[in-house]
Specification:
Largest sheet: 4 strands, parallel
Oligomer: single chain
CATH architecture of the largest domain: 3-Layer(aba) Sandwich
Strand order of the largest sheet: 3-2-4-5
Radius of gyration: 24 Å
CATH class of the largest domain: Alpha Beta
Strand content: 15-25%
Length: 410
């Protein structure tokens, strides 16, 4: 009898223990920080909807349309996305003001894909001091890949330095005696590209670069800089500009009948916001680099990823210019974020958001070029490190060569 009682007691203890474990597991599964609940995930964003970089504002609009589509389909793990996006006019002091508002007043879980190197630099230390993720920033500055010192900040696109090194590698191979003129934006973004170019040229940088001109975003036009660069006698032009100034540069190069081999940084390679306004005739032969598929490229006509993207535009963002490269970037980065949130499950703490962002293994949004995969780790905060060169021909970009690793150490 005693044995029987003991067995019942033991069984009861086992049931109680099992219930306790189940309950604690259930409690462990649902963890929230400010900005997340059973029904909502609050995400902050800062974009230049006005000002000198306003061409990029469409990225935020694309993200808003994508989140709306996701919400209409039931959200992520049953939670709706509350996407709060503010304008900073590409002005760092305004960025600081908007970031504080998002973190301290709106109480977002994290800030996602805020645009620009100077704006993100202005809130870099603040976000890390607050331990709020500054996730997938919309800038390729190399400094976003520094998990040791800034564990709450991560980039997404290939780094500016690695992209510029690819251009340098091409110049050294194809035009070893080139005389190079460089136009760059006078801020962290422009200087990052310039450093990559010089590092890529190595010991030949000093002799090959015959002219450098920097411009301020407050300047109405960069025409005078182009005139001076042409006067240097350069036969290669490395154009490190944002869309407004990129279009001006292409026009002025044509107007002055300067015929250099023209390299245009990826952030201004948009057909819709740069090349078309500058003129297709003026843009022939320009070289850039890509990591995303281009809507205007006929090779993607029957591509499932491109079809899905175009279906999204038709239904959820019909006012978008599908030829604007920034639209597909906004689409791709949002898909990457959704993968991170799926991996988070019911553990929506800021710490776990960063943990999952640093645990992407061969992830692909199908608007990336074939062969390009997103990989991160606790020691690697550079999700995309591969690019392919492309040349403008006719009315579209034509890819050439192999997928190249943009790894600075590569």
């Amino acid at each position: 009898m005693t044995v029987f009682v003991n067995r019942i007691a033991t069984a009861s203890v086992a049931v109680v223990t099992l219930l306790a474990v189940s309950t604690s597991a259930a409690l462990a599964q649902k963890k929230y920080d400010t900005g997340a609940t059973d029904t909502e995930i609050k995400i902050g964003n800062i974009m230049p909807y006005s000002g000198p970089a306003s061409a990029y504002g469409v990225i935020g609009k694309t993200e808003a349309a994508y989140f709306k589509m996701i919400n209409e389909a039931g959200g992520i793990n049953g939670r709706k996305i509350n996407f709060i996006s503010y304008d900073d006019g590409y002005s760092p002091p305004k960025t600081v003001e908007q970031a504080r508002k998002l973190v301290e007043s709106d109480e977002v879980l994290f800030i996602f894909n805020s645009l620009g190197t100077p704006p993100n630099s202005a809130i870099h230390k603040y976000m890390n001091a607050k331990k709020v993720p500054q996730l997938f920033v919309a800038t390729g500055a190399t400094k976003w890949n520094d998990p040791k010192h800034f564990p709450w900040t991560m980039g997404w696109q290939p780094s500016y330095q690695s992209e510029a090194r690819i251009y340098a590698k091409y110049i050294l191979k194809e035009k070893p005696n080139a005389k190079i003129a460089v136009l760059y934006q006078n801020d962290d973004y422009g200087k990052d590209y310039l450093k990559g170019l010089k590092d890529g040229l190595g010991s030949k940088a000093a002799s090959m670069i015959v002219a450098e001109e920097s411009y301020e975003t407050s300047e109405p036009t960069i025409d005078n800089h182009i005139v001076r660069l042409k006067a240097s006698g350069a036969d290669v032009f490395v154009d490190i500009t944002t869309p407004k100034f990129a279009a001006q540069a292409i026009k002025k190069v044509a107007e002055t009948e300067w015929k250099p081999l023209h390299f245009l940084n990826n952030v201004s390679a948009s057909l819709g916001s740069v090349i078309k306004p500058a003129g297709f005739d003026n843009s022939q032969g320009i070289i850039s680099a890509a990591y995303m598929k281009d809507v205007s490229d006929p090779q993607w006509a029957n591509d499932p990823g491109m079809k899905q993207f175009l279906a999204f535009l038709a239904k959820d963002f019909p006012e978008a210019n599908k030829l604007d490269g920034s639209v597909i970037v906004g689409y791709g980065v949002t898909q990457t974020l959704l993968q991170v949130l799926k991996q988070c499950g019911d553990n929506l703490t800021r710490e776990n958001v960063m943990k999952q962002a640093a645990n992407l293994k061969d992830f692909r949004t199908e608007v990336l070029l074939p062969g390009i995969k997103i990989n991160t780790s606790p020691t690697n905060f550079a999700p995309i490190t591969q690019l392919q060169l492309m040349r403008f021909k006719g009315e579209r970009w034509v890819l050439f060569g192999d997928i190249i690793s943009g790894d600075v150490n590569g």
